Amino acid sequence: MVNKIPTLDIYGLTDEGLVRDHNEDFISWSADYGLVILADGMGGHNAGEVASELAVKSVTDALEEVLSPDVQDACKLDSKEVVRDAVIFANDEINLHAKTHPECNGMGTTIVMTLFCNDKVILASVGDSRIYRFRKGKLKQVTTDHSLVQEMIDNGYMSEEEAINSTNRNLITRALGIAEDVDVDVAEQSIEKNDIYLLCSDGLSDMITDDKIFSTLVKSRQDLKRASKDLIELAKEHGGHDNVSVILVACK
């Protein structure tokens, strides 16, 4: 069987929101490589936007070095390890930049990404940005938040309902750039025709419920541009307290 990138429709948007005076999110995608990446930066003196852009560009550079120009050999690699290594490389690059640029000390970023090939997708995540999958009328979060609140839920100290209103929901337990080593969640899934994957920063998931995300995708799943704009506007209508970014990927 010939290894190939599946046919993908991709559309993404990023917005400052209604409170922040600049945008520390960074998004990127390439349908030719089946690669989609979203990062949500943090840090003083605008360093968060440095970290998020550096993360996305470092991952992209690392993967383009190992993926062949015509992308025909991509799936012959150990894709999960290739993706993990790319994210670890990004962590190293952010740490190095912070050491050589004191004004960026303490910067970090979340990251979520997908790499599509044949009938598979590799998912990677660090932090509390999310990936959802919309399949056959059902929406499922397919990454786990690396946050204090999620750990409390997992350990039975807090319910899902209590988590929604927790003042600690933005405290993350993993990010790129905050330590020399980073633990990257990497998973492989089969894709199906008409699947839609949503990558988003917490500026979306903190502002609106999964039910609202679901209803938006049901209404506009045939128009990714419309769906992206609707999700951004919903986040802003519900407060827009943070930068908000979304990328939608439809498997054709």
Helices and strands, with pairings:
Blueprint: E1 8-15, E2 25-30, E3 35-42, H1 47-66, H2 79-100, E4 108-117, E5 120-126, E6 130-135, E7 138-141, H3 148-154, H4 160-164, E8 185-190, E9 196-200, H5 202-205, H6 210-220, H7 224-237, E10 244-251
Antiparallel strand pairs: 1-10, 2-3, 3-4, 4-5, 5-8, 6-7, 6-9, 9-10
Helix pairs in contact: 1-2, 6-7
Description:
Strand 6 and strand 7 form a beta hairpin. The longest helix has 22 residues. The protein has a single domain, classed as 4-Layer Sandwich (Phosphatase 2c, domain 1), CATH 3.60.40. 33% of the residues lie in helices and 27% in strands. The strands form two sheets. Strands 1-10-9-6-7 form a five-stranded antiparallel β-sheet. With 252 residues, it is α+β, with helices and mostly antiparallel strands.
Count of extended strands: 10
Share in helix:
25-40%
Q: Round the Cα radius of gyration to an integer and report it.
A: 17 Å
**Count of individual domains:** 1
Q: Which terms summarize this structure?
A:
single chain, 252 residues, alpha+beta, 5-stranded antiparallel beta sheet, 10 strands, 33% helix, globular
